[in-house]
Design goal:
It is a single chain. With about 280 residues, this protein is of the alpha+beta class. The chain has two domains: about 120 residues, Aminotransferase class 4, branched-chain amino acid transferase, N-terminal domain (D-amino Acid Aminotransferase, Chain A, domain 1, 2-Layer Sandwich), CATH 3.30.470.10; about 160 residues, D-amino Acid Aminotransferase, subunit A, domain 2 (D-amino Acid Aminotransferase, Chain A, domain 2, Alpha-Beta Barrel), CATH 3.20.10.10. Helix content is about 30%, strand content about 25%. Strands 7, 8, 9, 10, 11, 12, 13, 14 and 15 form a nine-stranded mixed β-sheet that branches. A six-stranded antiparallel β-sheet has the order 2-1-6-5-3-4. It is globular, with a radius of gyration of 19 Å. Bound molecules: 4'-deoxy-4'-aminopyridoxal-5'-phosphate. 4'-deoxy-4'-aminopyridoxal-5'-phosphate binds next to helix 6 and strand 13.
């Protein structure tokens, strides 16, 4: 396995960053996860666009030109002989003597790793996954894909301990914001697809945006609005979306069965449409 650190391709085990990297000290950095399916990066344009936005919001300069990053991504796929893999891209404000303020001459750190992935087993797609709900205890710039992920670390751990695949975080008004590492969707009794509107309160998922495009193309009615936990319990279907899971059916929320307890037809249609959109067949 090969990793990339600031201009060098290294054996994964030899790759390292400075002990005073601000990513390490302050989580002062941003990231993207791009899924490689059949050797091709899925939705690369969308992920690079969002990376650019995250950097701008935090005034972190690009460590290399976007076109160079695209080249490095291709090199990582090639050097790792990646067919089905997750490409992780992280940019931090760089190494500097520990001080909260930005360093005078920032030299951002760029790291890429590539991990071959087993996608969810087919049984996951056949049965759907369970989620549990939990209070959303994060900061108010969730639109920035920052490496500051402690609430999600705690949330995912809690979900795992409850035997659930994902945690759905809930705002003070009882409305679902999003999953710990995914966007949250339901289909109402009237067959309307619902997912929360983009704002500072959620990460605008690249997979989310592509699935909305698919819904538009298929003529599926959708609404971008918040939905409550109570509405989710009585939904016809529920699912999550992310770069690594695509559209993945949710069949239980807090132990309650959703719909007929089987993966929903609309979710599976959108999953197929998403695969067509990225020009691949479903690896699961
Ligand atoms: N929300 C959160 C909090 C996430 O961490 C992720 C995945 N990184 C998503 C949504 C889904 O985004 P994407 O479709 O771009 O992977």
């Amino acid at each position: 396995r090969i990793a990339y650190v600031n201009g060098r391709y290294l054996l994964h085990g030899d790759a390292a960053v400075h002990v005073e990297d601000r990513g390490f000290q302050f989580a002062d950095g941003v990231y993207e996860v791009v899924t490689i399916v059949d050797g091709k990066p899925a939705d690369a344009d969308g992920h690079l666009t969002r990376l650019s936005r995250s950097l701008k919001e935090l005034s972190i300069p690009w460590p290399v030109k976007p076109a160079t990053l695209r080249f490095i991504m291709g090199e990582m796929v090639r050097r790792n002989r990646a067919r089905h893999a997750l490409l992780y891209i992280q940019i931090t404000r760089g190494a500097a003597p520990r001080d909260f303020k930005f360093p005078k001459n920032p030299a951002p750190t760029l790291v890429l790793t590539c991990r071959r992935t087993a996608f969810q087993p087919a049984s996951t797609l056949e049965n759907g996954v369970a989620v549990i709900t939990m209070p959303d205890i994060r900061w108010l710039r969730r639109d920035i894909k920052s490496t500051s992920l402690l609430p999600q670390v705690l949330g995912k751990q809690k979900a795992a301990e409850a035997g659930a695949f994902e945690g759905w975080m809930v705002d003070d008004n009882g409305f679902v914001t999003e999953g710990c590492s995914s966007n949250a969707w339901i289909v109402t009794g009237d067959g309307i697809l619902v997912t929360r509107q983009p704002s500072n309160e959620i990460l605008n998922g690249i997979t989310r945006l592509s699935i909305l495009d698919c819904a538009r193309d298929l003529g599926i009615r959708f609404e971008e609005r918040a939905f409550s936990v109570a509405e989710a319990y009585t939904a016809r279907e529920a699912f999550i979306s992310s770069a690594s899971t695509f559209a993945l059916p949710v069949t239980r929320i807090d132990g309650k069965t959703i719909g007929d307890g089987r993966p929903g037809p609309l979710c599976l249609r959108l999953r197929q449409a998403y695969m067509d959109h990225i020009g691949s067949t479903d690896p699961v």
